[in-house]
Amino acid sequence: MAFIDIYTDGSALGNPGPGGYAAVLLSGDRRLEISGGFSCTTNNRMELMAVVEALQALRGNDHTIRLYSDSKYVVDAFVKDWIGGWKRRAWKNVKNIDLWQRLLPLTHQHQITWCWIKGHAEIPENERCDVLAKAAAASSTLGPDLGYLGNSL
Q1: CB of 97 within 8 A of CB of 152?
Q2: Which of 3, 29, 142, 153 is most buried, most CB within 10 Å of its CB?
Q3: Active site residues
Q4: What are phi and psi of 68, to 5 degrees?
């Protein structure tokens, strides 16, 4: 069983607007940085996308993970079990269902400790994610966030 620290962040330049996500994964002396973005999305979607992409980047299952995010939306969904309530209500009136439903199976493959951290608090890996997410959001080659567009029509 490998131990991994994951830092994630999302950004939207306007809400909605161009958005980016990023993650830094650390395990021993190994480091992986990932980022991407969409031409029209929201900050909350990018916060979620960062976690989805980070967990999808892992090889194998059953990792012990500390996942750090400055998004209460993401962390509290697990720590305060908002997800349990959403499931009991059949996801009624829940935003970003497509991303939550992509994320949930990934979380069941690992043992994750969800850690909220204050944004812009000079935590190096969180600051790095912020830089990467903003750079991704500012890219001139962004495609559409079909999940967002499909839910906003």
Answers
A1: no
A2: 142
A3: 9-10, 47, 70, 120, 130
A4: -105, 130
Nearest to 18 by CA among 40, 51, 50: 40
Query: How confident is the model over 49-88, as pLDDT tens digits?
Result: 999 999 999 998 899 999 999 999 999 999 999 999 999 9
Write the single-letter amino acid at 92. K
Query: Residue 153 has which token pair?
Result: 């029509």
Output the pLDDT for position 1.
54
Domains and CATH numbers, the chain: 3-152 (3.30.420.10)
Tell me how far apart the alpha carbons of residues 40 and 13 are, in angstroms, rounded to a whole number: 9
Question: In angstroms, rounded to a whole number, what is the distance separating the alpha carbons of residues 104 and 140?
Answer: 31
For 127, half-sphere exposure in the C-beta direction (CA atoms, 13 angstrom radius) is 5
Strands (E) in 3-151, as ranges, are 3-12, 17-27, 30-41, 64-69, 111-116
Provide the whole-model pTM: 0.95
